[in-house]
Amino acid sequence: MCLSVVATLSILGAALPASGTGVAKNLIVTPAVRASLLDAGAAYHQLPAKDYVGLAKGMTYYALDVTTKTYYAAAGLDPSPKSLQAQVGAQDDGGYNLFVRAEGAKKWKIYNDGLGASEDATCPITIPAAVLKVWAWKLRCFPPLP
Predict the structure, then answer these.
(1) What's the order of all strands across the beta sheet hosting 109-112?
(2) Alpha-carbon dihedral of residues 67, 75, 108, 19, nearest 10 degrees?
(3) What pLDDT does 140 receive?
(4) Which pLDDT does position 82 carry in this prediction?
(5) Quick count: other Cβ atoms within 10 Å of Cβ 46?
(6) For the whole prediction, is pTM greater than 0.70?
(7) Of 118, 122, 142, 117, whose CA–CA distance to 132 is shortest?
(8) Residue ranges of the domains in the chain?
């Protein structure tokens, strides 16, 4: 079984306060979380999960805003070479998603953030500063590029 470590610059499991803005805890993407993100992302793009082979390597983040008891995740979907629709959908503005789920909720709310790295892009949601800090994100809604 392979577990992905996310936001490698953060201390795993540590709750870190951001200046005046609550507390967030960086979390490990377990196989169950990975599957839930993949299923939710595929459904958001109106495709079956089998049209994707997983989440984009090095681009998956997961955290809990301890203050609001809200989970945040960010991930790109890795399209299957057998699905032209998934390949096209994962390009450009369809290539990255933000996920939000209240503690205890079963379903993720998904936001398309494929243009988040663009200079003039606006983030579809406000990610709390504490979450951005544990993810080591400099931009408000897109991870550091590898």
Answers:
(1) 15-17, 23-26, 61-65, 70-75, 97-102, 109-112
(2) 10
(3) 65
(4) 93
(5) 9
(6) yes
(7) 142
(8) 15-135
CA dihedral 58, 63, 72, 89 (to 10 degrees): 10
Q: Exposed (0-12), middle (13-18) or buried (19+): which is 68, by Cβ within 10 Å?
A: middle
Is it the case that residue 49 has pLDDT exceeding 60?
yes
Amino acid 60 reads T
Backbone angles phi, psi at 71, to 5 degrees: -90, 140
Coil/strand/helix, residue 55: strand
Yes or no: say if 126 and 104 are a contact pair by the CB < 8 Å rule.
Answer: no
Asked whether residue 95 carries a pLDDT value surpassing 90, the answer given is no
How far is it, in rounded angstroms, from Cα 90 to Cα 87?
Answer: 5
Alpha carbon distance 124, 122 (integer Å): 6
Q: CB–CB of 24/16 below 8 Å? A: yes
Tokens in use for 80?
């299957």
